[in-house]
Amino acid sequence: MPVDDDVLSSPAGVFEMPAFAEGSSSLLEATIESDLQIPETDREALIAARRGPGLFKQRVMQIERECRVTGVRNPVHLRGSHCKPWRDSSNGERLDGENGLLLTPTIDGFISFDNSGELIVSPAHAPSLNRMGVATDRIVNAGTFTEGQKHFLQYHRDSVLLRVAR
User: Which region, left, alpha or beta, applies to residue 109 given φ > 0 means left and ψ of -120 to 50 means alpha?
Assistant: First the structure.
């Protein structure tokens, strides 16, 4: 059941930096661009890194509308979470919306899903999730995934969740 997002509303940017359209400039980007103590190539890399997460979340939001576990819909309270981690992804996969799910910060990094949408919780993280109020002993069916999401979730189950559980 979706959570009433009005109860959770907060000013934009409290929990995460707001997403900016590709090619636009934020105050942070303007500050980086004008800081001549930072070498030019480093400035460009910092700006690209800043834009990447916002663009990724926008692309995930073209597929996802809410957190599949908590039902939270307010984008301020959601993260675009990679199924195949940034460090393991090609440049294209890093910004591919199908490589992500919208999740609340309390569950991001602790879970996965099977292809039918059933929640998988790492046994190593179940106690922490329970202390945060996330019931791990109930069946959660998150619905269906795109074929691309299934591909990236398979990687997550095989390579990420197993690493975390060790």
Answer: left
